[in-house]
Amino acid sequence: MPLPTSPVIRRARLGAELRQLRRREALTLEQVCERLGWASTSKLSRIELGQSRPDLADVLDLLDVYQVAPAHRDALIVIARDAATSRGWWRALGEMGERQRTYAELEAGAASIVDWQPAVVPGLLQTPAYARLRITAAHLVDSTVDVEGDVRARLIRHDVLRREDPPRYTAVLAEAVCDQGDAPPEVWREQLRHLLDLTELANVTIRLLPRDRVPRGGVQPLTPFSCYAFPDPADPRTVMLEALTTDVRLVAPMDVDRYERLTTWLLDAALTPEETVAALGERLAG
């Protein structure tokens, strides 16, 4: 069964709503904190940016300051409760590092996910052996990476594609992703077979972007990114940019619109799902 909307998205939604209410009242961060007796503006700033788990009592105090009408107040209280990471989430997602947990929360609450990958197979599509290879490489850069723990976490994340009510998942892969690279032949063959198996799922679409096909304007991003949309249209659409040591989360509509437009250009240039299956089959046979 799908998990409820992810806490990370509810925190972003709550923060945006509270920021709008403060601005409606023409109050500064300093004025609100002074009324509530908060020592500094950093606490309120982090709540508005969705960067901290909100305390319900703090949210109720803010709603009092902003004189929120009863119906709107009740709706925001529900969102505030969702924004707190519950034990159910911890049990469902298992022991994960902060980076994997953020992705897992987004994936588990999403209605649709689109991944762009210019170099490696996306995490949701990786076999255990391929994942171990990639995570071991990350361990060489950062010795704190728990290779086996991260592999287990990634496998837990895979369940989202096969649950009863899964998100619509689309992966756009540059042709370089299908190069064997440093992967042992048996690991790479298993990974190709796994990609082909996943294309049989009704909710999964894989599209290859050949080297000789150029997206509109010649724009082909070198940084992997993922776009998430959620069942509640009021929850903020989200883009995650994947970097070596950290990830960047974008929720501003202008930023998200740009990445969604870029995704459309990539899909327009990519092989069709049927052509992609044929191309993967040829590589596996070869």
Instruction: Note poorly predicted spans.
Output: none
Task: Name the structural class.
Answer: alpha/beta
With helices defined by DSSP (H or I, 4 residues minimum), what is the helix count? 12
How is the largest sheet built, in terms of strand order?
Answer: 3-2-1-4-5-6
How far apart the termini lie comes to 39 Å
Over the alpha carbons, how many angstroms does the gyration radius reach? Answer: 21 Å
Oligomer category? single chain
Q: Please give the number of β-strands.
A: 6
Shape: elongated
Order of helices and strands: HHHHHHHEHHEHEEEEHH
| Most strands sheet | 6 strands, mixed
Beta-strand content estimate: 5-15%
Q: What level of helicity do the residues show? A: 40-55%
The average pLDDT is 89
Notes on the protein architecture:
This protein is of the alpha/beta class and about 290 residues long. It is built from 12 helices and 6 strands. The protein has helices at about 5-25, 30-35, 40-50, 55-65, 70-85, 85-95, 100-110, 130-140, 145-160, 185-200, 255-270, 275-285, and strands at about 110-115, 170-175, 205-210, 225-230, 240, 245-250. The chain has a 6-stranded mixed β-sheet, with helices on both faces. A hairpin with a 4-residue loop joins strand 5 (about 240) and strand 6. The chain is elongated and about 70 Å long. The mean pLDDT is about 90.
